[in-house]
UniProtKB/TrEMBL annotation:
This is Biotin transporter. InterPro entries: BioY. Belongs to the BioY family. The chain crosses the membrane at residues 39-64, 76-101, 113-137. It is found in: Cell membrane. It comes from Paracoccus zhejiangensis. One of its GO terms (molecular function) is biotin transmembrane transporter activity. Its main location: membrane. It is a multi-pass membrane protein. One of its GO terms (cellular component) is plasma membrane. It comes from the Bacteria. It holds the Pfam family BioY.
Length: 191
């Protein structure tokens, strides 16, 4: 239990720290940020529930006023701005990424994590983020998707980075990946 809480807090801190990476804000108020990499990693490393808990902990701290979102944003106002759908989508995206890695059986932990990051950290997060943006800017959902499509190449790179980092972790410390541990042992028995 203590180990789980420590890992959840660690990944919440990682997501927050990735918000310190310099950002570029586009004309409609949505910044290019590294925080989604942290969300992808939380789900890919911790799994569905703990990954979602890490992202939810970050949002709780943001709601309390801590400036932990990219650009030093915090407080309840971030939940009604143009990035509200993305911020509120962080726990859902981490959960979806974790659910993917827990249930999809691929030979490579890195490939599993990378594809899970595409599923949760891009497909699911963009669905929620574009929906929130559409509501805030009062434009059709299709127009909001066109506005955020500019982020897809960078997020695909983040998914690749997630896969590479998880592959390295699986090779160095497979016990750190609960979802992979049993697969690694089964693979060792097959050899």
């Amino acid at each position: 239990m203590e180990r789980d809480l420590a890992r959840i807090a660690l990944f919440a801190a990682l997501i927050a720290a990735l918000g310190l990476v310099p950002q570029i804000t586009l004309g409609f108020g949505v910044p290019i940020t590294a925080q989604t990499l942290g969300v992808m990693l939380a789900g890919a490393v911790l799994g569905a529930w703990r990954g979602a808990a890490a992202a939810a902990l970050l949002l709780l701290l943001v709601a309390l006023g801590l400036p932990l979102l990219s650009g030093g944003r915090g407080g309840l106002g971030v939940f009604v701005g143009p990035t509200a759908g993305f911020a509120l989508g962080f726990p859902v995206a981490a959960f979806a990424t974790g659910l993917f890695v827990e249930h999809v059986r691929l030979r490579s932990a890195g490939l599993t994590a990378g594809l899970g990051a595409v599923f949760g950290g891009i497909l699911i997060l963009y669905l929620l983020g574009a929906t929130g943006l559409s509501l805030v800017i009062d434009k059709p959902l299709a127009e909001a998707f066109k506005l955020v499509a500019v982020f897809i190449p960078g997020d695909l790179l983040k998914a690749v980075i997630t896969g590479l980092l998880v592959q390295a972790l699986a090779q160095a410390r497979p016990q750190a990946l609960d979802w992979y541990r049993g697969r690694a042992a089964a693979g060792a028995r097959r050899l």
